[in-house]
Design a protein that fits this description.
Elements: H1 4-8, H2 19-36, E1 44-47, H3 48-56, E2 65-69, H4 74-90, E3 95-100, E4 105-111, H5 114-117, E5 128-135, E6 143-150, E7 153-160, H6 162-175, H7 181-191, H8 198-205, H9 210-221, H10 226-233, H11 244-247, H12 249-254
Parallel strand pairs: 2-5
Antiparallel strand pairs: 1-2, 3-4, 4-5, 6-7
Helix pairs in contact: 2-4, 6-7, 6-8
């Protein structure tokens, strides 16, 4: 097991209090390194909030590893994650791998006593859960390769191009029955340097232009308690002031000037 101090040195002083999040981020990188060094990684595109965090340096921590499954089989997914689980166990990270195949391929990696062993909990039985999901998106889109170079892990991963990532997040935001603050945060973060892929948005949501997009987002936020939704993502934000990205999301939408 790597020393906690060795992980913390990769972060500025003001973030070193997020010890649990940093530990989870380290394990995320280890899993990605193993996954993309194997055959199954070539059949999975890294998507979601953790992809935005690790590939585009978003200023919030993320929990799960999400993938677009472009060809991985149930057997291949299981074999790959069991092997990753075994390798991590050999490194001292005692864990259990459980699987579910209802819709998405899902692996639950539970790291036993890890918080206790790192001095982050007084409860020896408390576990760290890392969830890995792979589900076909059913839409073709532009992807690119990115290199993750953290904690001694060097992984060449495949991710959607930024406009597609933004469109995926917009589709997720519009499609959820229960709103999550992370979607609102990620949309504002990505919008600072890219615009949506309207071809992708059209296929997923029926939206083909900026005015339609603004109307859909404003309908979604109408009547919502945005302070409550901001509180949902707040524990993962590097700075509490970034709650404003969620609280003032409606004003952000009204000012959008995306091109067609």
């Amino acid at each position: 097991m790597i020393a906690l101090e060795s992980l913390l040195k990769h972060y500025p002083q003001e973030l070193r209090g997020f010890k649990r999040n940093i530990l989870a981020e380290y394990l995320q990188c280890r899993v990605l390194g193993y996954l993309y060094s194997g055959a199954e990684g070539a059949k999975m595109i890294f998507i979601g909030g953790t992809a935005i965090r690790l590939c585009h340096e978003s200023l919030r921590f993320s929990e799960d590893l999400d993938f677009d499954n472009t060809g991985a089989t149930k057997e291949g997914f299981t074999r790959s994650l069991k092997e990753i689980s075994r390798k991590l166990s050999l490194e001292g990270y005692d864990n259990e791998a459980d699987f579910s195949f209802k819709g998405a391929f899902r692996c639950f990696l539970r790291f036993n006593s890890i918080y206790f062993r790192y001095g982050l909990s007084g409860h020896e039985n408390e576990k760290l859960l890392l969830q890995i999901d792979a589900e076909p998106q059913g839409v073709k889109y532009e992807s690119e390769t990115r290199v993750i170079n953290r904690f001694g892990v060097f992984a060449r991963v495949v991710v959607p191009a930024p406009p597609v990532l933004l469109s995926m997040k917009i589709a997720a935001l519009l499609g959820r029955r229960r709103e999550k603050g992370r979607d609102f945060y990620d949309v504002t973060f990505l919008s600072a340097f890219t615009e949506p892929d309207y071809k992708y948005l059209k296929l997923r949501t029926g939206i083909s232009g900026v005015e339609e997009l603004k109307e859909a987002l404003l309908r979604k936020t109408a009547g919502l308690n945005m302070k409550r939704i901001a509180a949902d993502v707040s524990p993962f934000l590097f700075t509490k002031s970034d709650e404003q990205r969620v609280v003032y999301f409606e004003e952000f939408v009204k000012g959008l000037r995306f091109k067609l």
